Amino acid sequence: MQRFRLGGVPGVTPAKWMRVWAERVPDVPIELVELGEADAPAALREGRVDAVLARLPLAGDDLHAVPLYDELPVVVSAKGHPIVAFETVTLADLEGEPLLADEGMTSAQLLEVVASGAGLAIVPMSVARALGGPDTRHRVVTDAPPTTVALAWLRANDSPLHQELIGIARGRRAGSSRGAEREGGRHSVEPGNAATGAKPRPSKPKPTPTPGRPRRRGGHGRSGRPGPGGRR
């Protein structure tokens, strides 16, 4: 039986979309394949998955990526760190603190190092909630840039199943056309935003038309007084 393999990086929660898929495409089961952050593009190119939910940017012109939602950035610390006393923090509050990067580590390994008290790490809220554990705490960093989760697949492998999945992720109703979605504007429906801190990506505002200048009556100057050829 044909299966659709959906890769997911740490923190993404597509369970809601997968339930909708099971209702709309019952003859093609969908399977979630857990991937590391850096492994998503390779998994697509090697044929291990048919599509991935991953964070931008994704390198390569051979990939088609559709942004879905933004995630709140948080700083993760050991539970006894003084920063836990604050509800939110700014980047200026973190000056002088050792900030760790995930170079050479998985997200889970990074947060294990944070839990040991070796430093802090800024990650998406969904990652902190999924992998933080009882020995860490996290606080929203109000002025740090968000991360964006996208649905991506190989351009060469585009299929009706990929379009069905992106329609589900965007909240398109069953039986609606892609054209109707375009007319209705861009929709971003994120799974479980209360738990992940995800925010839908807003549509671009429509430009406000500039009202035309009032037509000036002939024979009158700017002051409204009769001009040389006007009626007195």
UniProtKB/TrEMBL annotation:
What are the residue boundaries of the LysR substrate-binding domain, all occurrences included?
16-101
Q: Which residue intervals are annotated with compositional bias (Basic and acidic residues) in the record? A: 179-189
Question: What Gene Ontology cellular component terms go with this record?
Answer: protein-DNA complex
Q: Name one GO molecular function term.
A: DNA-binding transcription factor activity
Stretches with biased composition (Basic residues): 213-223
Q: Where is this region: Disordered?
A: 167-232
Which keywords does UniProt give here?
A: DNA-binding, Transcription, Transcription regulation
Keyword Transcription regulation in the entry? The reply is yes
Repeat as a keyword of this entry, yes or no, is no
Domain of life from the UniProt record: Bacteria
> Record's PANTHER family?
HCA OPERON TRANSCRIPTIONAL ACTIVATOR HCAR (PTHR30346:SF0), TRANSCRIPTIONAL DUAL REGULATOR HCAR-RELATED (PTHR30346)
**Similarity field:** Belongs to the LysR transcriptional regulatory family.
Q: What is this protein called?
A: LysR family transcriptional regulator
